[in-house]
Amino acid sequence: MVNLVGTRDELLKLVEQGFDTPILVRGNEITVSGEPHEVGLVSYLFEELMELVAHGHLLTTDSVARSIDMVKTGAFRPSEVFSDALTVSRTKSIRPKTGGQKRYVDAMRTHTIVFAIGPAGTGKTYLAVASAVQALARKEVRRIILTRPAVEAGEKLGFLPGDIAAKVDPYLKPLYDALYEMLEPEAYARAMERGEIEVAPLAFMRGRTLNDSFIILDEAQNTSPEQMQMFLTRLGFGSKVVVTGDVTQIDLPRENRSGLVHVRDVLTDIEGIQFVEFGHKDVVRHKLVQRIVEAYKEHTDERNR
Questions:
Q1: pLDDT (tens digit, 9 = 90+) per residue, 162-193?
Q2: Which of 92, 223, 246, 251 could crosslink 259 through cysteines, CB 3.0-4.6 Å?
Q3: 154 burial level (CB within 10 Å; 0-12, 13-18, 19+)
C-alpha cells in the first residue's frame, strides 16, 4: 500500500488532484466515491498502478501523473506503456514514459521508415538509438548508421581544426552522447572497430546503398527536400530508417524549405511509412522544459491567428 499511495500519501494526493472524486484509504482498502464515470476512471487507474507495483515498478510522482493523463485520454494502458522495454545491454533497458513514446516504439517495430516529429525533450533521438542498439544486439541488423546534417544552430563557428572526423564531431555529439549512455565503453569501442556503428554527416550518405542497417537521421528539419530524398533512397534490403526532427527549430536560411516539412506532404499514407507526432505532454526532461515548449507553441499559435 505504501508503494501505491506513496510516502505521506503523495501519490494518493496526486490522484485526488487529477480527478474530482473523494478517495479514502483504510488499511488495504481504497474507497472511491462520486460521479460514476470519474469513479470508473479512478478505479481503472488504481488497477493499472497495482499491476505495475506487482511487477516491481517503482511508482513516482512523474509516472503517476503520466498514468493519470493516459487513463483520461484512453489511448494506452499505463501498465502497457511502462512495462515495455528496449534492452540495450545485459543490465540496462530503456522504457517509454508517455503514450506518444509508446506509439513511437511500436512504430519502429512494425514499419520500415518512421518519422518522429516533435519538440525537444520528447526522446525522439534517444529511443531511436535504443531501438537500433537492441536490433544490433539481436542480430536483426549488421550495423547502426547515425547521421545528421552539419548545420550550425544560428551561430557561425568558422573553420574548425583537425581532420574530417574532428570537424564533424561537434555536429554529431548528441548521437555520441546517446550511444555512450547505453553501451559500456568497451562494447562501444569494439562496435566502432568492427564497423558495427558508424556516425557520419549526411553529406557522406550520397551514392551509398545501405543494406541490413538501422539508419537514423537526426535533426532532419535542417535538411533540404533534395537531401531528404537522397537520404531516403539510400534504403537497402533488410534495413530500417528512423528520421527525427523538430519543425519549430529550423536553422536553415528563411528562403529554404525544410526537407522534413516537405516530406510530410509527399509521403503521407504510403504503406510501410509511419509519421509519429509528439506534443508538449511527451516531453520527459525537466518539467520546466515542458512548460517552455507549451509557452512557445501558444505564442506561435497566437501570432498565426
A1: 555 566 667 677 788 888 888 888 888 899 89
A2: 223
A3: exposed
Distances (CA, A) of 91 to 48, 86, 94, 105: 26, 12, 11, 20
Q: What is the pLDDT of residue 162?
A: 59
Distance CA 59, CA 64 (A): 7
Tell me which residue has cell 537531401. Answer: 227
Q: What would the grid cell of residue 39 be?
A: 469513479
Tell if the pTM clears 0.70, that is, is over it.
yes
- Distance between CA atoms of residues 101 and 155, nearest Å: 31
| Half-sphere exposure (Cβ direction) of 43: Cα atoms closer than 13 Å | 10
Backbone phi, psi, residue 63, to 5°: -65, -35
302: helix, coil or strand? helix
Give the Cα separation of 45 and 76 in Å (integer): 12
Contacts of 169 (CB under 8 A, 6+ apart): 176
